[in-house]
Design goal:
The protein is α/β, with parallel strands linked by helices. It folds into two domains: about 100 residues, Enolase-like, N-terminal domain (Enolase-like, domain 1, 2-Layer Sandwich); about 270 residues, Enolase-like C-terminal domain (TIM Barrel, Alpha-Beta Barrel). About 35% of the residues lie in helices and about 20% in strands. The strands form four sheets. Strands 4, 5, 7, 8, 9, 10, 11, 12, 14 and 15 form a ten-stranded mixed sheet that branches. Strands 1-2-3 form a three-stranded antiparallel sheet. It has a three-stranded mixed sheet with strand order 6-17-18, with no helix packed on it. It is globular, with a radius of gyration of 21 Å. The protein binds D-gluconic acid (GCO) and magnesium ion. Magnesium ion (MG) binds next to loops.
Length: about 425
């Protein structure tokens, strides 16, 4: 079962995706997602120039050995580019193994622990009435847990908030990497004010609870913008509204910051979408400073590494909340649905629908019904890549926005 070809496919059906496509000598194809939003070509080069040549002729069955070979063997460990590339190889090898076994991947990971993976959708509005409409639309769409983001009085635009009237199923890509229109390819710049944000957010959750009652799980993303003491204050002020989690309250690289937040609030905490290794979590897990692990299979070294991370989290009673906006491709999403179905400590799965163009390139078989995602029983990951369709959407340079304070200082986000 040797690998015969390793092709890196870059396609942009509305936003950029990087996919690794492995084919074995006996004709089994495996797919892996290596999309790193706004830095896609760095991973494509890492795969094409440094990894693909090492894969040809390797035994596709030896997943753990290949992982260690690419991780330990490279000397330069970790980092988002390296770990996304390793993730793609690892995921593609699991796809191949499961197809060869004639089983959906979740069966190889231990079988189903639940009927499906509870998903949360992204509701947002520039103001509260628009937000309430968006929550309603998500409920009508079948979501049973909702992330809530709003515009902030005094700020022109806020990342994570749709820029036009709210909706749900039809809003595929309101957080893509973008570029300023006209002129050179540069990131959009946004202005941020944490004090205005902290004053506004509690009233938003009060309005949502008043309208939809106490039962609906509500989530919120702080996008790494607060200092520890500001985050502690926000967590405390949101306690009456019983959040499912407060995500990414502080910049991700400072694990100790979570200690301070934890001392002040019982609002559950989630972090990790920008992490790429179990080593980013050691303090957070051992000291139980978080409640949910936000890493994605795509950015954390694949199914192998993510499974180990979640097993380690399980020791401390910490659950999964894998990152799932549309910059995780349908391949990455399918991989984490298989994993989420199998592990005991699944928590919740972020889920934004991909656009019709994306779903033309990536033919998925996972389902979303009554709030639950299921990876399907198709052997492997259950996703096929249509190479012709992929070829008709060429790469488009784009960046995530840059965040600045009113005086021009570059700020975390
Ligand atoms: C989320 C995230 C995303 C990221 C995006 C960056 O919680 O889904 O914060 O929206 O901003 O993945 O590429
Ligand atoms: Mg987030």
């Amino acid at each position: 079962m040797n690998i015969e070809s390793a092709e890196t496919v870059v396609t942009s059906p509305g936003r950029n995706f990087v996919t690794l496509r492995l084919v074995t000598a006996d004709g089994v194809t495996g797919l892996g997602d290596a999309t790193l939003n706004g830095r896609e070509l760095a991973v494509a080069s890492y795969l094409r120039d440094h990894v693909a040549p090492l894969l040809i002729g390797r035994d596709a069955r030896n997943i753990e050995d290949t992982w260690q070979y690419l991780y330990r063997g490279a000397y330069w460990r970790r980092g988002p580019v390296t770990m996304a590339a390793i993730a793609a190889v690892d995921t593609a090898l699991w796809d191949i193994k499961a197809k060869a076994a004639g089983m959906p991947l979740y069966q190889l990971l231990g079988g189903a622990s639940r009927r499906g993976a509870l998903a949360y959708g992204h509701a947002s509005g520039r103001d509260v009435p628009e937000l309430l409409d968006s929550v309603r639309a998500h409920l009508a769409d079948g979501y049973r847990a909702i992330r809530v983001q709003t515009g902030i009085p005094g700020l022109d635009s806020v990342y994570g908030v749709a820029s036009s009237a709210a909706g749900s199923g039809e809003r595929y890509d309101y957080e893509p990497a973008r570029r300023v229109t006209g002129g050179p390819v540069l990131p959009v710049e946004e202005t941020w004010d944490t004090r205005a944000y902290l004053r506004h957010v509690p009233s938003v959750f009060e309005a949502v609870r008043e309208e939809f009652g106490p039962e609906l799980p509500l989530l919120h993303d702080g996008h790494h913008r607060m200092t520890p003491i500001q985050a502690a204050k926000l967590g405390k002020s949101l306690e009456p509204y019983d959040l499912f989690w407060l995500e990414d309250a502080t910049p991700g690289e400072d694990q100790a910051a979570l200690r301070l937040i934890r001392q002040h609030t019982t609002t559950p905490l989630a972090i990790g979408e920008v992490f790429n290794s179990v080593h980013d979590y050691t303090t957070l897990l051992a000291e139980r400073l978080i409640d949910y692990v936000r890493s994605a299979v795509t950015h954390t070294g694949g199914v192998t590494a993510m499974k180990k991370l979640l097993d380690m989290a399980a020791v401390y009673g910490i659950r999964s909340g894998m990152h799932g906006p549309t910059d995780i491709s349908p391949v990455g999403m399918a991989a984490q649905l298989h994993l989420g179905l199998a592990v005991h400590n699944f928590g919740i799965q972020e889920y934004m629908r991909h656009s019709p163009d994306s779903l033309e390139v990536f033919r998925t078989s996972y389902t979303f019904e009554d709030g639950l995602l299921h990876p399907s029983d198709t052997p492997g990951l259950g996703v096929e890549l249509d190479l012709d369709a992929a070829g008709s959407f060429p790469y488009e340079p784009a960046y995530l926005p840059v965040n600045r304070l009113a005086d021009g200082t570059v700020h975390d986000w």
